Amino acid sequence: MTSKVANTEVAQPYAQALLSIAKSKNLTEDFGTDARTLLNLLSENQQLRNFIDNPFIAAENKKSLITQILGEASPYLRNFLLLLVDKRRIFFLEEILQQYLALLRQLNQTVLAEVTSAVALTEDQQQAVKEKVLAITKARQVELATKVDSSLIGGVIIKVGSQVIDSSIRGQLRRLSLRLSNS
Hints:
The protein is of the alpha+beta class and 183 residues long. 62% of the residues lie in helices and 14% in strands.
């Protein structure tokens, strides 16, 4: 198994190349949408991930599948993925797409806020979180990645970069417990 750092080091130049292609064709947002779709597809379909990651499956079979999945929707992205198959780098697809999205957020002055809540957030609650993050970070836009964790009991945990805002009931109980044990 390769390490996360090694994967990131291999993925970074490919992600930068993909961003360069997207910029030259004025398709950065379209590639971003396609990257999110592919990442969701890979996370939801373990068979697809296994197929792409398997080094014993012929490159032509992988190319055929990629062509079927993408169709004619995005020829530049499709050709990029076919090149990854040729260069035996398709194994790094997930990391490359994640790096691309990180570069795209940087380009657009957008921050990623990872929000964990006890229950799914409503549109109004998501908007309130976005406004709070905008006020804290002074970014132009906020992209939310939401997750539900019922063990929080209530409230939310917001992570932006290395900054964590824990306003969950579980976090408050943990802090109270620490204060009581130190007394």
